[in-house]
Specification:
Layout lengths: L1 E8 L3 H12 L4 E4 L13 E3 L14 E3 L1 E6 L3 E5 L5 E3 L2 H15 L2 E3 L4 E4 L3 E4 L2 E10 L6 H5 L7 E10 L6 E4 L1 H4 L3 E6 L3 E10 L4 H14 L10 E6 L6 E2 L2 E3 L15 H16 L6 H20 L3 H17 L12
Parallel strand pairs: 1-2, 1-11, 2-8, 5-13, 11-18
Antiparallel strand pairs: 3-7, 4-7, 5-6, 9-10, 10-11, 12-15, 12-16, 13-14, 14-15, 17-18
């Protein structure tokens, strides 16, 4: 049996960022990924200026948007900034680049590796048994590591999207409370297509109803989705802690995604790097992660408040858009970054 200082389950942005930093500091790291390659996931593909945009090579980014077009039932506004607010990148492209970065730093990555069992000091997989001193759960909303820790997952969001071929100019957010309840619809342009999707938090939104609403909304926007296959994924925002002795949870496994927007990449990155720094230096002050957790809890309260009834929901959405229009709150209030 091989043993490692750190075993990371999951090769998403959080797991790979964690692996890279640990390997750069001389620790022996093993990353286990159940898929055949790192990266692919149902995701709108939006990355923020305060989050990943400045870290990713420019040639990998497909769209850059200093303007965000926001619509609700009764209003519309355009948020402008000198720097790009959100950019788009394909998750498989980001995953491949981050995977190479981690490997170049010295991390070992095993793909097509299914985890069968976790014990206090080993992980049993389809490719053998591996010992660990530290275990990192970076395995998403259905995290086996989270289940091993016996943490419940009750607050979950759902994202559904179509990848629509064509040229799309604007990045759009639609807070249509009639169609999307306390969620939203999005249009995120890439080079030759757009991610057109819907996000909503359960139990306030039913996935089957969400898909019907997405099709209706796409038709109203004259976006052809007929014949296209929708893709769906779960987003965990049920945060119940991340550090459990020598086991740590990061990203969606920790429930650090935003319940309001579904944003998960930046929380994964911050928590992954924080976990690495705590292993390297147990006295490390987790200031950035603590700030993110505070914002994540604020987003969760907004979701729960807006779900009280349809009137409260519509009023909440309209007040939010009005506050953005008037400049009372910055767009970054809706992001997990910043």
């Amino acid at each position: 049996m091989q043993s490692f200082s750190v075993v990371i389950i999951g090769a998403g942005p959080g797991g790979l960022a964690c692996a890279k930093l640990l390997a750069e500091h001389g620790l022996d790291v093993l990353v286990l990924e159940r898929k055949h390659m790192a990266g692919p996931k149902v995701c709108g593909g939006g990355i923020t200026w305060a989050g990943l945009i400045k870290r990713v090579p420019e040639h990998l980014i497909e769209g850059v948007f200093p303007r965000q077009h926001i619509r609700s039932n009764y209003q519309q506004t355009t948020i402008k900034a000198a720097e790009p607010i959100v950019a788009t990148i394909r998750r498989e492209v980001l995953g491949k680049w981050m995977c190479l970065q981690a490997q170049d730093a010295g991390a070992e990555i095993k793909t097509s590796c299914l985890v069968h069992k976790i014990t206090p000091d080993t992980v049993e997989t389809s490719q053998g048994e591996f010992g660990y001193r530290y275990l990192i759960g970076a395995d998403g909303s259905g995290s086996m590591v989270r289940k091993y820790l016996q943490l419940a997952t009750e607050r979950v969001g759902v994202g559904i999207h179509f990848q629509v071929p064509g040229n799309f100019e604007n990045m759009e957010w639609h807070l249509n409370a009639t169609l999307f309840q306390n969620g939203y619809g999005w249009i995120f342009p890439f080079r030759d297509m757009a991610s057109v999707g819907i996000y909503g938090a359960k139990p306030y939104n039913n996935p089957k109803h969400m898909l019907r609403s997405l099709r209706r909304w796409a038709a109203a926007q004259k976006i052809p989705v007929g014949g296209l296959k929708p893709k769906a994924g779960l987003i965990n925002f049920d945060y119940r802690g991340w550090h459990f002795n020598n086991i740590m949870l990061i990203g969606d496994a920790a429930g650090l995604a935003s319940g309001l927007t579904g944003e998960g990449m930046y929380p994964a990155l911050v928590s992954g790097e924080t976990a690495a720094r705590v292993i390297i230096n147990p006295d490390y002050k987790c200031t950035e992660l603590q700030r993110l957790i505070k914002k994540q809890k604020k987003h969760r309260r907004i979701v729960e408040f807006s779900a009280k009834n349809s009137f409260v929901n519509i009023a909440t959405m309209e007040i939010l858009v009005l506050a953005l229009r008037m400049g009372f709150i910055p767009f970054s209030m809706l992001e997990m970054a910043g």
